[in-house]
Design brief:
single chain; about 25% helix; alpha+beta; 12 strands; Outer membrane lipoprotein wza fold like; wza like fold; 5-stranded mixed β-sheet; 3-stranded antiparallel β-sheet
Length: about 250
């Protein structure tokens, strides 16, 4: 009877250990389904709409022209700035969608693309500068990455657009107990909040509308059930030592 109980204990322990292990299939991103791993494949991304200028946006505006003596926009701005410093020399879009600039005053840029805004400013500057050229960039684009990642937080990005893998890269990737098959993307557009789950293990992620991250998106990585059950702190060494001791006792009782 005692021997049977010990065998059952060992069997149950082995089951627990096998369940608690994270498999390679749960960790590898964009796994191919119907082709070999090394066979190339092209995907057509669904690019989200171009970001439009909205109230509260911070815009870095750089003006150049042949009349450098009249280039009053860039006084004291010719030095090099680190990326995190550009917010110190940016213009804020007010609640009505206007930015206030030197000499030309308030300019309406609401719901304009950066290219359209550049054209508007260049036209307004024609009376002040000789062949002005305007370059505009967003400087306050942020993405929030939460859940089972190594460094959750709010991250600022300066590229024109980033994808979900780049966003997770800012957070130093998903932990081994993060559910890569169920990553939630929360997005607010036009006062409407939408949420959608994406599967990072599926190579079709490249064709998802949520593959490209938009400013102010929230990316949340759910934990695997193994994490919920607390297996990250599971006493594996104790289990192994108990099994070893039990086997020795069984061998002695023979």
């Amino acid at each position: 009877m005692k021997r049977t109980s010990c065998i059952l204990f060992i069997f149950a322990s082995l089951i627990i250990l096998s369940v608690s292990c994270v498999t390679k299939k749960e960790l590898v991103y964009v796994q191919p389904k119907d082709r070999k791993q090394d066979q190339p494949e092209a995907f057509h991304m669904k690019i989200a709409e171009v970001n439009l200028i909205q109230p509260g946006d911070e815009l870095y505006i750089r003006v150049t022209s042949f009349d450098e003596t009249l280039n009053f926009f860039n006084v004291g701005r010719d030095q090099f700035y680190a990326r995190e410093d550009v917010t110190l020399i940016s213009y804020t879009v007010n609640e009505e969608g206007y930015v206030k600039l030197p000499y030309i005053g308030k300019v309406l840029l609401l719901n304009k693309t950066l290219e359209e805004a550049s054209d508007i400013l260049e036209e307004r500057l024609q009376g002040y500068l000789n062949q002005p050229e305007v370059s505009i960039k967003f400087v306050n684009k942020k993405v929030t990455v939460l859940g089972e990642v190594n460094n959750p937080g709010i991250y600022t990005f300066y590229d024109k657009r980033i994808n979900i893998f780049q966003a997770l890269g800012y957070a130093n990737d998903i932990t081994k107990f993060g559910n890569r098959e169920k990553v939630l993307v929360i997005r607010e557009e036009n006062n409407i909040i939408t949420k959608n789950y994406v599967n990072l293990l599926d190579e079709n992620i490249f064709t998802s509308y949520y593959y490209i991250i938009k400013p102010n998106d929230i990316v949340y990585v759910e934990p695997l059930k193994k994490r919920v059950w607390g297996f990250t702190e599971f006493p594996y060494s104790l289990i192994f030592s108990t099994i070893t001791t039990t086997l020795l006792v069984l061998n002695f009782l023979r």
